[in-house]
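ERR on first pass: missing label on line 2. Operator R.T. fixed the label and resubmitted. Corrected input:
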Amino acid sequence: MQRIGVFVCHCGTNIAATVDVKAVAEELKNEPGVVFTADYQYMCSEAGQNLIQDTIRNERLTGVVVCSCSPRMHEATFRKAAAKAGLNSYMVEVANIREQCSWIHKDKVSGTEKAIILARAAIAKVQLNAPLTPGQTPVTKRALVIGGGIAGIQCALDIADAGYEVDIVEKKSTIGGKMTQIDKTFPTLDCASCILTPKMVEVAQNEKIHIYSYSEVEAVTGFVGNFDVKIRKKARYVDETKCTGCGECTTKCPMKKIPNEFNMGFDNRSAIYIPFAQAVPKVATIDPDHCNMLKNGKCGVCAKICTANAIDYKQQDQIIEEKYGAIVAATGYNHIDVSKYDEFAYNQSKDVVTSLEFERLMNAAGPTGGHLKRPSDGRDPKTIVFVQCVGSREAPPCAKGGKEYCSKICCMYTAKHAILVKDHYPDTNVYVFYIDVRTPGKLFDEFYRRAVEQYGVHYIKGMVGKVAPQGDGTLMVQASDLIANDQLHIKADMVVLAAAIEPDKSARHLATMLTASMDTNDFFTEAHAKLRPVESPTAGVFLAGVAQGPKDIPETVVQAGAAASKVIGLLSKDQLTGNPCVANPDELMCNGCSSCEKVCPYGAITYADKEFRQPDRTVAIRRVAQVNPAVCQGCGACTVACPSGAMDLKGFTNKQIMAEVDAICR
Amino acid sequence: MIYSYYPGCTLKNKAADLDMYARQSAAALGFELREIEEWQCCGGVYPMAKDEIATKLSSVRNLNDAKMHGQSLVTLCSACHNVIKQVNNDMRTNEDIRTRANNYLKLDEPYNGETEVLHYLEVLRDVIGFDAVKEKVTNPLKGKKIAAYYGCLLLRPGSVLKMDDPENPSIMEDLIKAMGATPVVYPMRNECCGGYLSLEDKPAVAKRRETIVNSAKDFGCDCIITACPLCMYNLKKNESGVPVYYFTELLADALGLKAASEETA
Amino acid sequence: MDKKEEIELISGVNVLKCMRCGKCSGTCPSYDEMEYHPHQFVYMVETGNIDPLINSESLYRCLSCFACVERCPRGVEPAKVIEAVRLSAIRQKGANHLKAEQVPELIDDDVPQQLLVSAFRKYSK
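pass 2 clean. output:
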């Protein structure tokens, strides 16, 4: 017979306001096996934990039930406390009377009644608990960073700095990400390339870092400390080890009319290309969709002129298999397609551009050499209208591809664009239509005010309703001015749309491979919104940059560093303590049907032929399930799938669960 | 192919041309328009109020007639199209309206929005195909620069009408190309003409008319086409003298039917 | 039922969804002819300040062209709010905005039937 102690937490008024904690403690004294009950203001406090430890010793408890918040919050706390007093951690159960009870009930009578029922279930379970001991697994001391933008770069550099090997997988032909396309950075206006390219070079030169560029993650198996990852290194038809990045091939390639993604299609590139001068690795790549040699075998110019003999038209995709202890998802973002918002005439006029396109038009390394010209006719724009919140802050169903969230970076980059335009071309009329100006950040609001007060940018509270291209090449912008209660008609030369940002499309597929959870917007979910912001709920998977939610460069760098420190903390361990709550087959009952093997998402189940003594004393060989406890994550899918009831989960056995249900139904 | 056809009040009167050329062209393109028996006026504007059904009932009767014949319902006038398609959407998606309308009508079987409502242009694009239209063109309108005027009712609300991109439509432009002419794209083509405001505020309508016509003219149009009799009324007396036609008239012309009908007349 | 509830019931619109961006008024082709503009209709219904709207000619300047409905980022559907206020006005006894006897002097020979049908639907009970 167990000797069970029950501890009911007030959680200040969080629980006590809706649950009569004293009545709960009193009532539970009558439960079978319960030898002690108490209520206390904060069970998680040091005094609360001492109460548990003292009671374990004094009352010789064999089981503990804490009625408190969700086990996700403090199960670990109470288990540790019990272990210190010499009780096996897995003899502790938590009854969640906060999230699942006090917070959702208004009436104290029903709240109290439910708290008692939840506690009874936990007591019934503890009756059947058995001490468990977790196993140990070794840690592979190498990290994988998926995405080579500023988030991935910073994260990889920090991990490498601590002495660990780290690989970056980047699907584009160069690392650098969106920041390579940005002109200046707010609020200091330092040049993005000037601060980014040294970091890119640092990555390339760091012996601990390996870059898989033009590559994508193909498959992920394994678990924290022991991930097995397949990386597809796409054929770039150029031998990276031979190419010197001289760029001779790109000038000689006859296919020169391919829209240049790096410059947002404002100019062209050749079929063999190096995206920009500071690319890392600085290696040419052949675009198979446009290369004549690859399409129909007619050309071969680049191979002929390449003095390094680096061109290889026969190159195939390569699959690389590598082991990692930790994975960082840093897959970044894109802006949404604004073509459904054609009241702004993006599809109808070349002079209506997105903000990222505008970055290229302002950038000294861009298609116009940094001289702002209208895309349609190359003239200097005299009036520019910026439209904020295009596709952000929408109400569902967001049928045009908009987003419910605030994209966070647009207010600041638009202030930056406005300042840069006024700084370079003071005679330009600049209008910014805003719904709210959101500038929470160090020196951010000062920056925005500078745009208004020092540069004379016209900030107008209101939204643009229609952009009408005119026969004379101008754009008639019809908008509301809410402060003046007026409808404005502004004859503009250019309109710049601050399009909402969204996670890169590859993130969803990656999340499935990582079994990492995502929110409805396809941002990776953090393990805890406040207290574990850079960890995914999936152990060993960490998050950095906009993949987790909209953020600017400084925030991205902060998060990347934080993710790196979490990775370093993990890789610094030689052994990881596993979870003892793993699947456990009863070989005598197993009929070898393979149902469990098929549903296991972790590949933890295999089959083995084993000898069994029959009732007639003969020996038969049967095929039975085997669980690798190091790989099993304890999800329980196999226990449900098993038709003969042979599979059980330690710590959550079928008997324990039925006992809980019985206790609730009693 | 036989379609149920809802002409609406104006096509029997002031806009008889819109109707006549549509029927002629349909015959030439191989589809038949069966006029709904004893059809009732749609009311001209979509009744938005959630608390009344009386104003929606005529549309439901028309829709149900098409359903009883197992046919899709084709409309031509933009206003009729807008009203009937939106009411059909209500009958399909709004349980309260559906229940109350059916309780009132007591049809043999309840109407639940089963009928497919098509604009004549949608039949041309999605059933006949503009390529097939082009093949039937015997009198291509070569060199003609035509500005399509959509107005408001043909496209909006886009989530219900689902006919074309409400901000950057192409269905009439594609028809213009099929007829051998050059479409003129201009930004005011989906802005309201002033509708029934011409009853009590003619100057306001004149202002809109000139904005719309000047926008089309700025992009070099010779003429404007429309599907709506009220748009026609509001636009045709423009100061620039830009002619406005029903799209069916130019279609009949391109199909060589207009010359033929004028000869017989 | 107070006026605000009545408007919300007729229109089916939740005016609290509005984030006050003013796009409806930025897009409205009738803006210049209106004393109260679409965003004001939404806001004044929210605050319950409905009488000025009911007594305003602005009610009859909205043509339900659905431009605001199409372009509103919050799905507020301002045209439906205006329609509800209009109905709230003309449903009162003797409050028809257009009377049959006025019509002959307002029309010419070219007027399409559709115009009269629409106008009567919008202006009269």
